[in-house]
Amino acid sequence: MAETSHWTGSDKYLCDPALAQAFHMARSLGMPLLIEGEPGTGKTELPIHYAKDRGLDLEVYPVGSKSNVEQFVARFDHVKYLRDSQIEILNAQREEKGLASKLTTGNRNPELLKDYVVKGPAAIAYSKPNSVLLIDEIDKAPREFPNDLLYALSHRKFIMPESGEVIEVSEEDMPAIVITSNREQELPTAFKGRCIYHYIDFPDQEVMAKIIEKHHPRLDEKVVRVALDVFYHLRRLGLERAPTTREILNWLKYMGEIAPKEAVKKIEGLHGIGALIKTQGDMERVNRLIGADENFGGSRFN
Amino acid sequence: MFSSLPEKFRSHGLKADVRTLLLLRKAMQKGLVKTLGDIYNVLKGIIVKGPTDLGPFTKAYYEYFLQVPIQPGQTLQDAILRSETFAQWKTQFLDEADRDLNDEELVNTFLDQVHLTSYDIKEVVSGKEIWDKDNPDQEDKDAVDQEGQPAERVLDKMADYSELSLEELLERMEKVRQQQKTQHGGGSHWIGTGGISPYGHGGAAKNGIRVGGQGGGKMARKVMGDKNYFPIDRDALLNDNNIDAALASIKGVIEESAIEKLDVPETIKSGLKRGGLFIPEMSSEKNEELKVIVLIDNGGYSMAPYVRSVQNLFRKMKTRFAHDLEVYYFHNTIYNHVYTDERRTKSISIEKLLAHDKAYRVFFIGDAAMAPYELNSLSIESIKSLAHKFKKAVWLNPEPLKYWPHTYTIQVMKQLIPMFPLTPSGIERAVRAMNTKSIEG
């Protein structure tokens, strides 16, 4: 029986109630959860922390521009198969020559094709009930990739290459599948139709403070407040690439090593702003608008 | 059951069909639906497929399940306050509540009840506890609330369907829904007391439930006023809000239209280098320079509201991707010259305009409405010659599509130049039509 109880986050991960509900619903229905939202809002973190918190097995498939279903499900290892099938002949020859030692096939039997099927994350997750499968950044995949998954998602089964073995999972044992996307390309409608969809809103200042608390519990409260003011101010500037959760966490990681008083000063002086601003154009803009340099006293944020 | 649900949600531009109903049913079987708020959540997961679906979805939900129609531009609070459902609920609620609440508090309570999900419910509290909370100590408690954590929401009642069988539940929902559609006062209640809630049934606030977490109503409220959660109406006439959508449709189609062509000179050149092995070299038309002439009808009151938006659009177009862009003006129709300035004082002759390279794309923008005598043979000849020279020419008309058949001059002009509405989707179709035309011949 798959794990279908309601999970609301762990001490390391603050899960938005709406997201927790959508995740619960997806698991109960045995459907994948498709999460979209700005980068750095914790899409990928959800299944990782869920699996860790509940002690479940996690399979991850990071999607890239060359991803295909073969890597995701399973591939047939032709090279090994060729080698093993030659070994019998070689061994016979060695025997003729009177050599005692034999080459082994490592318990693989060339008669059994399934010994040469190398399972990918999907096949592994499907064969283990109660596991978690993360398909990360599916929008980076070539267009056919999501379409190729349709059958597996709606019929809950994969057919292994060459061996023809079928890995099937019942609705109850369906692994918790989480798919993330940054909306770099629109996913096919048929694919979206098979998922429970959730769009993560960018957290507001209050929620962000809680998220920071989870990651850097020892950080001084004042430091966090000042940093958040700067952070949300930067987001409001309408930059090309607005800073995200990940970036402020990194920035504060650096600030956490400095004494609070000093850190506040540094934040107000926009030290290490490079952690937040990622393009040259944005940097110039910030310099122009609020003057991120040594002369900047930070009075604007007080 | 709910057989009209897909239709209703489709009318809001959402994707819903019989599978939606099957999934909803499955979710009910799994015990995911216990309250009205649960229905919102479950349907949201099933139907919403992008952030811009969230606005229309919330609208459709309020319309279908609560009979609260939300007009464009109206806030959720406003829509609720004006609805009959709310009026009924209010009467009942105020009967039982022992104090007066202002509109905002009422709407908040209403939203709390509507969006109450089974996840929110922490425990069912006894009437005694609520009664205890109502004692004179309350003032102290309020003071604490203001400083610290937001107060725990305690609702008097909820619609708990968990005791009912699935069939009963469906039946009840459908019945209530239909009643609400046709009722004339009294009778049915999605929320509040009446038939649905086992709690507080016939007796004020004896029992209640304690809820925690975030109120879903807050989100619903936020969604209503927020552009991010509504798709831009691609059939609305061009205005400053959808100008970027219009621009994107021009640009997007141009990129999409990039087709690979056999580059004969390059093939020969590289083939000779290979010593006579000719491999076809393809080149894409993507790098083709975009040249645009815009002819704007800026005469008369009929066009005045659109001229600025149109200029804005093409100004943006010029800075973003079409560097070779010329704008001319005319009044109603074109005779033997067009004007180079907005006030129509300097003109160039039609011959000069025709001397432009035939690769130019020509956009006519005007309502093409004029007195029939204005469209004389000279004018028709001029337009014909322009259409003949510039194969990639379209007319964009701000007049609503439904009036086109009734305007004689529009009908004539349409024969001469392909005409599309001046909306983002109209522009997209126009550009696509343009791209299918070859400049040769």
Question: Unreliable stretches of chain A, pLDDT < 50, 5 or more residues?
Answer: 293-302
Going by helix content, strand content and strand pairing, the class of chain B is: alpha/beta
The CATH architecture of the largest domain in chain A comes to: 3-Layer(aba) Sandwich
Mean pLDDT of chain A: 82
Regarding CATH, which class of the largest domain in chain A?
Alpha Beta
User: In the residues of chain B, how many domains can be counted?
Assistant: 2
The 3D shape of chain A can be described as elongated
Shape of chain B: elongated
What would you report as the Rg of chain A, rounded to the nearest angstrom?
A: 26 Å
- Number of alpha- plus pi-helical segments of chain A: 12
**Mean pLDDT over the residues of chain B:** 73
Distance between the termini of chain B: 60 Å
Subunit organisation of the chains:
heterodimer
